[in-house]
Specification:
Layout: H1 2-11, H2 13-32, H3 58-74
């Protein structure tokens, strides 16, 4: 089986060479027009929100400031 493949490849070397060049050109075209990023982002985008609540205790800040902001931001699309 393998010797027949080698024999046909040697007999039709121009066809093999032409197909190889065609495959090489197709690969170069595909690499040039690929829509992949070379260095993809491994960390999802993050948002930092700063809010001030002077005079509040930490429990009050969590209850009156942090939780309402988190509830409002949770409805934004494309979030994990």
């Amino acid at each position: 089986m393998l010797s027949a493949l080698v024999g046909l490849s040697l007999r039709y070397r121009w066809v093999v060479l032409g197909l190889s060049l065609l495959l090489l050109g197709w690969g170069a075209y595909g690499a040039k027009n690929a829509k992949y990023d070379v260095f993809p982002d491994f960390v999802p985008p993050q948002v930092t929100i700063q809010a001030e609540a002077p005079g509040f205790t930490p429990e009050q800040v969590e209850l009156l400031v942090t939780r309402p902001i988190e509830a409002a931001v949770n409805g934004v699309g494309n979030m994990e």
